[in-house]
Amino acid sequence: MSSVPYTVPVQDMRFTLEQVVKLEDLTALPGFEEAGADMVQAVLEEAAKLASSVLAPINFAGDRQHSKLVAPGVVQTPEGFKAAYDQYRDGGWNAVPFDPEYGGQGLPWAVAFAVQEMWQSANMAFGLCPMLNQGAVELLQAHGSEEQKKTWLEKLISGHWTGTMNLTEPQAGSDLSQVRAKAERAPDLGDEIYRIKGQKIFITYGEHDLAENIVHMVLARLPEAPEGTKGISLFIVPKFLVNEDGSLGARNDVQVVALEGKMGINASPTCTMAFGDESEGAVGYLVGAEHQGIKYMFTMMNNARLAVGLQGMAIAARAYDQAVVYAKDRIQSKSMTRPKDPPAPIIEHPDVRRMLLTMKAKTEAARALAYYAGKHLDLGSRHPDAAVRAKAQATVDLLTPVVKGWGTDVGCEVSSLGVQVHGGAGYVEETGAAQHFRDARIAPIYEGTNGIQANDLVFRKVIRDSGAAAKAFISDLLETAAGLEGSGNATLLGIGARLKEGATALETATTYIVGAGQSDPVGAAAGAYNYMTLFGLVAGGSMLGKAALAAASRPAGFDAQYLDGKIATARFYAEQILPQAQGLVAPITQGAASLNEFAEAMF
Amino acid sequence: MSSVPYTVPVQDMRFTLEQVVKLEDLTALPGFEEAGADMVQAVLEEAAKLASSVLAPINFAGDRQHSKLVAPGVVQTPEGFKAAYDQYRDGGWNAVPFDPEYGGQGLPWAVAFAVQEMWQSANMAFGLCPMLNQGAVELLQAHGSEEQKKTWLEKLISGHWTGTMNLTEPQAGSDLSQVRAKAERAPDLGDEIYRIKGQKIFITYGEHDLAENIVHMVLARLPEAPEGTKGISLFIVPKFLVNEDGSLGARNDVQVVALEGKMGINASPTCTMAFGDESEGAVGYLVGAEHQGIKYMFTMMNNARLAVGLQGMAIAARAYDQAVVYAKDRIQSKSMTRPKDPPAPIIEHPDVRRMLLTMKAKTEAARALAYYAGKHLDLGSRHPDAAVRAKAQATVDLLTPVVKGWGTDVGCEVSSLGVQVHGGAGYVEETGAAQHFRDARIAPIYEGTNGIQANDLVFRKVIRDSGAAAKAFISDLLETAAGLEGSGNATLLGIGARLKEGATALETATTYIVGAGQSDPVGAAAGAYNYMTLFGLVAGGSMLGKAALAAASRPAGFDAQYLDGKIATARFYAEQILPQAQGLVAPITQGAASLNEFAEAMF
Hints:
Chain A is α+β, with helices and mostly antiparallel strands and 603 residues long. The first copy, chain A, has a domain at 450-593. Chain A has helices at 10-20, 24-27, 37-55, 59-65, 81-90, 109-122, 124-143, 146-158, 293-329, 350-382, 386-421, 424-427, 433-440, 450-463, 468-485, 490-519, 521-552, 560-577, 582-588, 593-596, and strands spanning 68-71, 74-76, 161-166, 182-185, 193-204, 213-221, 232-238, 240-242, 248-251, 254-259, 270-275, 282-286. The longest helix of chain A has 37 residues, at 293-329. Chains A and B meet through helix 9, helix 10, helix 11, helix 12 and helix 13 of A and helix 9, helix 10, helix 11, helix 12 and helix 13 of B.
């Protein structure tokens, strides 16, 4: 049991990209001409091999072994991780979505999301290394100087070096305005060179043995910097300095000093990093202008949030994959419909079906929503028409906190159901179901807690534009519902009716939130989390609605039973899950009185 | 951080017992004359000392150390467990609810539940030992011969020996009809003596170093036994045989052969037990008649299910206790209402309040529901009027799967929120929040999975009596709602209105379930889990409604702020949680078509 197989759902990924997200809208864009269905299928199938035969087999043992601090400053990743990383890097997988000018493959984000889902499903602790690296790449692509790009970007894109994000300090978690790490200009060393001193915590892959160099993106404060978020600058602080010829130079004064003992993602080192402890300061290079660090960080953070939402759904997908295998195999109790036969596989029991279908439906809804956001990321940056770009960007901005917040909640719920399907065996670590449950639990916390996502959704994405983007999205929901209702197919009609009810609930809640933004911001904040959940439930339902419509048209290249299953999944979601959204409207629109009246001493 | 304090909510326990559950109804019963409010308060305060100063301090380290198989057949519990158990036993705590004829203290179950909540909150892995022992005591109280009671019962009640439940085998988990352990009569050894051979798994505290002897209650099958559940007998199989004079005799052939590596409750050994591996069989003594083992087991199992539900709410209570301390202490980001002040404790942020209030309200609702079931257990066994006894027993039968299923789901949800309130620190084991989350996850699985509880509720407790007990309970809900609505107090009126809506939703769902019992049992099974959740949500709301009514009458002996908080908690639950019940009615009443149409290959 110690290495649980991972069967990559390539057919559902393909279907979602081609039929739900409509990849064809992207192949019309400059640079994406090659990214047609055939090419995408080939990429997915090749990635699936690496995910299932290299990354998945070391997931369980990696969790048992942990990454370890084996000597001062030295972190050893679990057995097999270095060899797996070599294969990952040499296969060019790190470069998938990045700029071809610096060695990237320039594939659409929508496609990259499907590929990245596989790494996270196969081995979330491994997948974190490229995920953080991606943040560094995006920062440098957007804000690095030409020279910085030349020095750092190509190696980060190829994966020969890896990048990290150094934001958090003990007193500065959700609140980055409290960052205290110091930066001082070092004109003796050169222009734009600084000395960095301070400590950072919770640094994922801050130190490891997978790559030759580690490039830290570090937030720190200059001596005369204003207080708060407007006084923070962003620096490149490499583990090894780099010589003119690109070879590695002196060891910089940045060291891992401790690893966290975590509940999960144990194969990934979560480091406490010390900068400048043994010198006048670690050498750092300013990115962009001084005091602009937080602004830069946000250009990266939005994509990172989508990546974490994707991670949540990826763990859900893995937990589902494993639970189905178990439920088909495990014999226990008689079937209700065949009481005279011997005990049946548990997949025949209604409540086990309910659990598996909940897992499947929520996972596929979250998958489609993440890929859909990825597509709009591509449209937002590549479409020739500025109005289309702006509308797409507004959609991805709106959906980012939903993909992150709801997607990671789905990861937790589905991986918990995965444990439950296994019964007592699920609580035993050997089965592997428990690992998914423990791993998944970090995703609602990092990259902005889900409470922060909910606030982001409500205040920045809905209230700020008076609900314009949200209402545009709801119009799209209603259009999907109308398409289903007008299909002349009874099953689709039922799905459409439920979706319409969901969209109406979301509309009511949105109207309340927009109003409360003016009259009662605390009320809006009190309803934020339920609003995010409602949004996710309904948006997910619309994705499955689109999928059902597409499946009913029987597109070529997909198994008949798969297409039937897609419609049946949408139906289950519409009947069993979407109606639960109705129960959230009253709590959202209730205001904050019941929260406010609670004196601190009453808790 | 490694030892997190536990502040026992004695005031809420007292209030719940006196004001919500109405302990005074019990002190009128024969045998309970002494169990008045003062005596109960003294018991709770004494128990709280042991829980907070002895059991809680070894909870975190126990999880890190695990119970270990240190030599063949030898299990070592973590440091401090033996000394803590000595204090627990010597304080007479093991005897609280049991028969005074055998050394028990004869306190009401309702009171025992409050005491037991403390052990589970303080140290769930420790608390499992008395919890399993209680099962053995109840079995022997109900079905043991006088001689068996004399030999085993007193020592189990005093806690000098501990009892275990040996039911599960690899192929017989939820489905005990598949038990294969063998029993053979051994007339050469004596009347009612049997030789037991076989293997049992998942045996909690099957071996340990806390007590002199371990008394296993074992299900096994006689050679000529009929197949299925009707061919299983129950045996006492002690670790050490007992001499005529009560002293310990020969070592019996029952051995622990392995411990499970679990996700949580690591300080409790979960054993694989081998019976008769090194002999003709372990010596076992038949309890009651042959082939009646499953029936006997059920007399114990219902109370055990209540105990597990209590455990779920106890972990919720502990997680809440810890999260509040953290949220008052942790400074991060500015308050929305005081934007010019420095960053505030996170308890001021609306979404953190929402989380803490959700934790508090669900925990207190689940606490009251568990104690309420405990009271009806007492009424059902002690009331002089047979009709009252029957009605009370019907109530406890109805509520048992709700207390277990919903209570343990609350345990998981609340402990997950506890992690979330801690942010990144919550994912780090050192904080202790993660342990509660891992510990809580077993409770929906053991003692009958929550799916089995849902089926039990729907088929045995609602359909079998055509909804009579459920409808009686709903009448009580409506009466509570009417009391609130007639109170002339606006807050109570609002709570009453929401409760009435909830009761109506439960009524609609109940009517559907009763009908489906005849026409579409698979449909009833498909809706069972959501029905259990709906039942729990509404029943919990009614408990808080009763509490609010009582608090509004300002009873003596409670802090004014505590009473205000009780009303405010009920209001939060009514506004933010109860309406979510509405979203479950459609899924419950939808039938099983969306489940049934799923061919196995579509998963």
